[in-house]
Structure formats: C-alpha cells, structure tokens
Amino acid sequence: xxxxxxxxxxxxxxxxxxxxxxxxxxxxxxxxxxxxxxxxxxxxxxxxxxxxxxxxxxxxxxxxxxxxxxxxxxxxxxxxxxxxxxxxxxxxxxxxxxxxxxxxxxxxxxxxxxxxxxxxxxxxxxxxxxxxxxxxxxxxxxxxxxxxxxxxxxxxxxxxxxxxxxxxxxxxxxxxxxxxxxxxxxxxxxxxxxxxxxxxxxxxxxxxxxxxxxxxxxxxxxxxxxxxxxxxxxxxxxxxxxxxxxxxxxxxxxxxxxxxxxxxxxxxxxxxxxxxxxxxxxxxxxxxxxxxxxxxxxxxxxxxxxxxxxxxxxxxxxxxxxxxxxxxxxxxxxxxxxxxxxxxxxxxxxxxxxxxxxxxxxxxxxxxxxxxxxxxxxxxxxxxxxxxxxxxxxxxxxxxxxxxxxxxxxxxxxxxxxxxxxxxxxxxxxxxxxxxxxxxxxxxxxxxxxxxxxxxxxxxxxxxxxxxxxxxxxxxxxxxxxxxxxxxxxxxxxxxxxxxxxxxxxxxxxxxxxxxxxxxxxxxxxxxxxxxxxxxxxxxxxxxxxxxxxxxxxxxxxxxxxxxxxxxxxxxxxxxxxxxxxxxxxxxxxxxxxxxxxxxxxxxxxxxxxxxxxxxxxxxxxxxxxxxxxxxxxxxxxxxxxxxxxxxxxxxxxxxxxx
Length: 659
Fold this sequence. Notes:
Blueprint: H1 2-5, H2 20-29, H3 43-52, H4 77-108, H5 123-134, H6 137-162, H7 184-187, H8 189-210, H9 217-233, H10 244-252, H11 256-271, E1 306-308, E2 312-315, H12 333-339, E3 344-346, H13 361-380, E4 385-390, H14 392-407, E5 412-418, H15 436-449, E6 452-453, H16 455-464, H17 467-480, H18 489-495, E7 500-501, H19 502-514, E8 524-525, E9 528-529, E10 539-544, H20 552-559, E11 566-571, E12 589-593, H21 600-606, E13 608-611, H22 615-623, E14 629-631
C-alpha cells in the first residue's frame, strides 16, 4: 500500500538537446579529407593546393530541437493536487482488485478445476443453428447488406450531429431498457454513436439467430438465450471507459468511486467464498423477526374478533423463505389476510444441509402437505382446511391433491395457487437449464457439496433470467460507480436463498421440467398414479402477465388440467410483484374471466381489466368457501403446545452456515 501513502515522484525534466547537434557537427569537421590514390603531391604542392583551393564554408549546425514543455507548469496547484489524488486512487483501486482476485484464486485452488470446454452445454445447439444459417447464403447476404446499410445511416447521422444538425436516432433502446438512461448517451455524440453501434450489432445478431430455419425449437431457444446473454454482457454500459456516468463519477470523486467499487468487489468475492456474489441490497439493514417477518403469533395471531371457521394453510416455495408474504406491515399478505377474518397458518421449510440429502419429493408431500394439514385441523378442531401453494409449493400441493383424490381424502376444502405450474411444456427459460446434461452437471455439483445444492447456484440461475436487471445493473452500481446497494426488503429476501436436498431437487428437475410427467399421467407417488383430472376441489389460480419464472401460458395449461371448478385470474407485473401487491398500494391491475376456454388467447378475449390488486377478488372467493364466522382463536391455546414465537427458528438459518 506504499503507493497510496507517498506522493508521486516528480517527473525528471527532459535533457536539453541544444548541445548534441553542435558536437556532431564538430566531429564531422575534423574528419580527414579523402585523397585520390593516383596523386602523391609533395608537401609544397600540398600547401599550394591548399592555398589555391577554395575553402569550404563551415556548415551551421542544425537548429536544436526545442525542449519539451513541462506539463505540470500548465496546471494550477489545485489541479496538480487533483491529478495526484486521482493517480493515487487509481493505483489503490488496482491494488485492491488484484489482491481480491489473488485471494479468490487461492480459495478456489483446492477445488476441482473446471475442465468442461462447454459449461453451458450450448455447443451442439450453436452448431445446429450456425449450420442452418450457413445453408441459407442468400439470407446471410441480405442480413449483412442490411447491417451495412444501417451503419451507413448511423455514420451519416453522426456526421450531421457533429455539425450541430438535429437528427433522429437510427436505433433506440427497447422500452424499459434502463442501461442508457444517462443523458450523455443521447447528448454526447461519441457516447451516442457508441450506444447506437452496439444496439445495431446486438439486435442484428439476435435477429439473425431467430431467423434460423429447420432447427430444433429447443436448440434454437437455447442459442437465442445465450446469444442475448453474450450481447448483454458486451454492452458499453458495462465498462468503465465507455460508461459516461461512471467516468463522470470517477472524475468528480477524484477516483474515490473506483476505490469504493473495488472494495465492494473484494467484499463480494469474500462473501461468495472466492466466487463473485454480487450484492443486490444492504444485507445489514434487515433482520428476520425485527424489521421483516414481523407478524406476531404462534405462528400467526388473529387481528379480528371473529374469524371464518375453516382455517387457511399456506405452503410457500422451499426454494425461498416464507416471509415474502410478510416483508413489512404495509405490504404483508399474512397481516392482510388476518385482517379479513381468516385464521392463517404458514409452513416454514427447513433450510436443508447434508443431513437432509436423502429427503425426497414424496417426503415433502407426506411430512409437509399431509402432516401440516393434519396439525392445523387438530389445532383448530375442524376436518377441512383451505390451502395455498406458491410457486414450487403449488406444484407440491397439486401432487398432494391428486394423491388425496386417488385415496378419497377430502381434507382440502379449496386450493389457491400463486404463480404455480403443473404443466411444464411452456415453463419459460428455466427449461434451458433442465436437460439431462445440465441435470448431470447439477448432480456433480451437489455431490461435491456433500448432498445439497448450494443456495448461490439457484440464485445465479434465477438472476441470469433477467441479467440486465439482476446482474449488470448492480455490477455498474456497485463496482463502476462505487455506490452501496440501497436497502430493499424484497432483494434482502431474494438474497436469503435456501439449499436443495439432492434427492428432492433432482426428482423435481427430471419429472417436472424435463419430462413434464404430472399432466401426462406418468407420475406415481406414494403408491398412486397422479391424475389431476380427478381433483374436484375448487381451485383459484393466480398468474402474472410478466412472470418469467412461471409464465402465464404455462400456468393456464395447468389450470385446465384440474377436473373441478377453476377460477383463473391474471395480475399485472411479474413473479413477485404480481403476487405481493397490497390493495393499499393502488398499483398495477388484474384481469378476470369466469370462463376457462381452451386457450389462454380465448381467455384474454373475454377478460375484464380491473385497477389495483387482485387480493380483494380472491378474498371474496375464499370467504365463500371458509365457513361461518366464529370467535377468534388464540394460537397459544389448543391441543398442540406452541414451540416458539413467530417467525420460528427455521427461517433464521442462513445458507452460508451449512453444517
């Protein structure tokens, strides 16, 4: 760190060159004249010849080169100080980054080397697409000609803009693309040219892949996904030298922003155990049970004097913690439901380690759905429960419903699904990560870990589905701009990922994403072949218009697989914001249609749009199936002795504390 504590040494002034040229000239004047070998003049004749011969004029030495000016003489003391500070901070940033990378390399040294030349298993798909494009030379020529024409338009536009002539952009970022929101991307001709050049090239490459014909749809989709990942990574906004906002921050902070950025980079490498785990929020600002997951109870306390007789039992995804439903009082679904007169129970899944490696999907169904529903019925003195399954928790609940239908078990009075899938034929980009090659890679990773999938692996997969929002925006903010991520409860929850037991996770990937066995009648659990068409339980299905994890087309296909009455609702926004949308927020909208036609397009055609949250619509449906009103129950009383206060101990276990 000595470079950060000492001032830069003063530059040596360049030596003056005035003496060099005369010395050379003098040397030449002393050189002996050449004499013809055929003449041997006597000394006298030589003297006469010397007297009679015209003496050559002595050449003037060439003018000396002017001394180079000392750049520092043009700077004010403040400017010199600023330059010295900037230089020192750039050196500090470089040393910090180099040290962090070296430390990460040491931490990874004892791990097996990644020798797979195609870690994303995309090589064969790329080969298939490129072969298809090569077989269409006329299409390639047209595409190249179109790209050249667009670049000609761009160069002409840039030239006019340099002269001050108003111009219209040749290409503009897509709606919602926040990468180029800084004003300099439009007002500065150089950055505008850089931005448009990038957009032309990336759009051209992505469109070219989409035009490949005669290619397996899965292979084409895989290539399109990874091509977009590649072009997103090479955006000029992701590099310091080509990001105007980052450059401006460096100059205004005299390099301090870059020092902070490299310190953030080092901290994220340390937190990831040698692998980069980009911080999305200030994790220190939140604590489970204190400012998130604060609904009181043993698990949840009522807030009304009377409640509906039939309780509500919620099964959240085990891939995340349950408190997505209870982030803050003002957006807590759990608090809102108790305010509507429901007795609410929520399952809290254990964060597994190697001790649960052999836990199966069947175990989760019996020890989760079956056992929890029985405990709720015992505690409340009823013989039926209403249930909710969120995301993967909904997939598990669907299987339990089919299993109960096969055995004539009628304990589930109604079931609601939040962003949950049963039919995985249109399950979105996650399908790209669930072919057999990927699954084998995941299995190897699980075995190296000791029987469970690390939480960071799942986080990386989900983040890659929205790389610009969940990776590159934080890369720019944290490292290039040197800013701390702002506190955000949703992103704190998102970072609180859980691990996956080997048996459960591999079963889920193979039987649902890869083979889509449930809706095809090829899935057997607990001695029963599951058939959703035999499920006659009333069903409420919520989907979200912009959900990239459980796309609404996929959710709709699952809704039609049930054999009983189904109400399908579409919410605005995505996988999280579409679900967690408190009515008081007055955000987004939702669509309803009492019919369930053969296609989602037909459903859309008859749907009615409503402003705001879908929660009141669901609450009306749920109240009609929750029985009469009775005095509110005390969760501390009943046949079952409370174990501990909400939010419980399972939810507090962080994944980095693996046993």
